[in-house]
TrEMBL record, chains A, B:
One of its GO terms (biological process) is cell division. This is Condensin subunit ScpB. The lineage of its organism: Bacteria, Pseudomonadati, Pseudomonadota, Gammaproteobacteria, Alteromonadales. SUPFAM superfamilies: Winged helix' DNA-binding domain (SSF46785). Pfam families: SMC_ScpB. Transmembrane segments: none annotated. The keyword Oxidoreductase does not apply.
From TrEMBL, chain C:
InterPro entries: ScpA, ScpA-like_C. Transmembrane segments: none annotated. GO terms for cellular component: cytoplasm. It is found in: Cytoplasm. One of its GO terms (biological process) is chromosome segregation. It comes from Idiomarina aquatica. Participates in chromosomal partition during cell division. May act via the formation of a condensin-like complex containing Smc and ScpB that pull DNA away from mid-cell into both cell halves. Keywords: Cell cycle, Cell division, Chromosome partition, Cytoplasm. PANTHER family: SEGREGATION AND CONDENSATION PROTEIN A. The lineage of its organism: Bacteria, Pseudomonadati, Pseudomonadota, Gammaproteobacteria, Alteromonadales. Belongs to the ScpA family. It comes from the Bacteria. This is Segregation and condensation protein A. The gene is scpA. Pfam families: SMC_ScpA. Component of a cohesin-like complex composed of ScpA, ScpB and the Smc homodimer, in which ScpA and ScpB bind to the head domain of Smc. The presence of the three proteins is required for the association of the complex with DNA.
Amino acid sequence: MMNSTQLKQLLEAALFAHPQPLTAEQLQQLVLNAGETSLAAVKATLQELQHDYQERGIELVKVASGYRFQTRADLGQRLAGLWQEKPPRYSQALLETLALIVYRQPITRGEIEQIRGVSVSSSIMKTLQERGWIKVVGVKEVPGRPQLYATTAEFLDDFNLQTLDELPAIDVPEDERTAETAINERDLND
Amino acid sequence: MMNSTQLKQLLEAALFAHPQPLTAEQLQQLVLNAGETSLAAVKATLQELQHDYQERGIELVKVASGYRFQTRADLGQRLAGLWQEKPPRYSQALLETLALIVYRQPITRGEIEQIRGVSVSSSIMKTLQERGWIKVVGVKEVPGRPQLYATTAEFLDDFNLQTLDELPAIDVPEDERTAETAINERDLND
Amino acid sequence: MAEQQSLPLGFVRGEPVVEKPEDLYIPPDALEVILETFSGPMDLLLYLIRRQKLDIVDIPVLTITRQYVEYVEMMKELKLELAADYLVMAAMLAEIKSRLLLPKAPQEDDEEADPRAELVRRLQEYEAIRRGAEYIDAQPQTGRDSWLSEIHTDAREYVTTPPPEVTLEDITLAFSRVLQTIKLQAHHQIKREQLSTRARMSQVIELLQEKSYISFSKLFTRSEGRAGAVVSFLAILELVKESMIELTQMEPMSDIHIRLKRQHDEFDPA
C-alpha cells in the first residue's frame, strides 16, 4: 500500500515522464498495482498536483485526452530561444480551412471551397492531416461520394482544449441577422 | 528586467522542455536577454530549484553536460508500466506445431512436417523449447535418428493442467468428423 | 462593426503596403506579393468592404463590384498568374450588378429577388469563418506557446516484453485446423487413443535414453492403480507398433526387457 506522498510522487513522475496526456484511469492501470489505490484517490491527487504547480514555470493541464504537464503559455516567447527552428506560423488559407473543419464538421473539401471561394490546395489538407489535427470520418452520400473531414482529439490536445465547445462561437446571434431587411431599406447609392 | 519568481519559472520551464541537459551558461544565453541576469543569479536559482524538487517525484540533477530533470530512481520500476508492451502473438505455424506435439507426442519434426504439409522452422522449435513447453525426450530409431519431442511438466503448469487428458474437447463440425477426431472419444475400455 | 484600421495588403522589401498604390505603375513583383496576401477572392472582397468602413449588410454592390473588377483587371494587365477563382467571383459580381440595373418586374417579391442577399449571406458566412480562424490562432498552441516534457527517465530500462499469451483454446483450435488438413490429404487411420498414453510414451522414451534396458515391470507402479497400468500397457503397445522400442524375453514367463529399437543394428558390422 502507498501513502499519499508516495502516490503523489508517482503520479507526478509518470506525467513528467510521459509527454502524451494520461487520464486518471490510465494512471491507475499503468503505474499502480491492481486494487492498490482508488480512482477517487488518483483524481484527488491530480487536483492537488494541479494546485502545487499553479505558480510554477510548468503547469498541469487537462486536455481532451487526459492530464499533462506543459510549460506556461506566457513563457512561450522566451522559451522559443531554446530551439533553432522558429515555431510554425500558419497561413491565413490554412487557418480558414482548419476553422471550417473545426466549426462546420463534418465537411467535404468541396464545401470548404464553396465557402472560401477558392480551391483548397492539397498541401494544406496534407499539412493538417500530418499534424494529426484532421481526419476523414466518412463519405457524404452525394454524387462522387466526397470524403468528410473532422477534427481529432490531437487537435484538441494541441490547442489546449478539452472539447470543441470551449472555442468561442462564431455565428452571430439570430436577432443581429438583419441582412435581408437592411438591404431592403437601402437605396442604391451608386 | 525579471524578478526572481519569473526567473525561476523560466529556468524551470526550459529544463523541463529541453531534451538535453543545459548548463547555467547555456540557460543564460538561450532564454535570457543580454545583460538581463547575472550568471550568479542563474546558478543561485538552479540551486533553489534543486531544493524545491527534493521531495517530489522528479529531481533536478547536475550531470556532466549540465542540469536536467529526471524521475526519481526509486520510481523507475513502477514507471516502466507506462511503456509496457502488449504481449505479441504467436504465429499459426507455431501454434499448430505445439498442438501436434501436445496431441501426438512423442513426435519428430519430420512427422510434424508430414502432417502439416510444410516445413517447420528451427526458430519455432527453439521458441517452444525456450518457453519451456517442449523438450527432446529421445531419438527415433529410423534413418537419421530424428529427435522426439514431448511436452514438459512446465507446459502442464502453465496451462493449469494435471494431465494432458484435461485438455478441452476439440470442436470439429459433425460432418467433418473422421477417424482423426475419434481422439475425443476417450474410452479406457475401448 | 467595420474594421477601423487598414489591413496591410502585403509587404514589399519590408515595407507594409497598406493601400493600393495610386499611380498605375506598380512593380510586378510587388503586386504578386499583394495577391499572395489574400487567401482568396472572398478575402479580397471583404478587404474592399472593410477598407470603406462598411457593414457587410450595407454593401454598395455597384461600387464594390467596380473596385473588385478594376483590381482583377490590373492583375490581368500585369499578366500575373491569377487564380481562376478570382474571375469566377468577378463574374458573379457582374451578374448581380446587371440584375440590379434591370427594371423590376411588378409582381416580383422584393426580399427573395434581391440579388444581393446571396452575396451578403456568403460574406457573412466567410466572415464567421475568419473569426473562427482568429479564435483558433489565439488559442495557446503546443509547439508555439507551450512545450511538453522532455525530461530524462530511466524507467524504460525496466520495460520487459512479456511472452505471448497462449490459451488452451488456441492449442485445440490449432489442432482442429491440422485435423482438417489431414482429412483433406490423407487416408491413413489413426486409432483411438488417450492423451495420457501419448504422454506415457514420451516418458518411456525418455527413460530409455538413460538406461539401455528397462524391465517391463518397472513401468507399472502400484500407486497408479489399474488405470495407470492400462496407460503404460497401451503406451508400450503403441511404441512397439511405431517401431520405436523392442521387447525381448529370455524365456517364457521371465521378465520382459524393453529397449530402444536400433534400426541400424542389422547393418552393424560388429
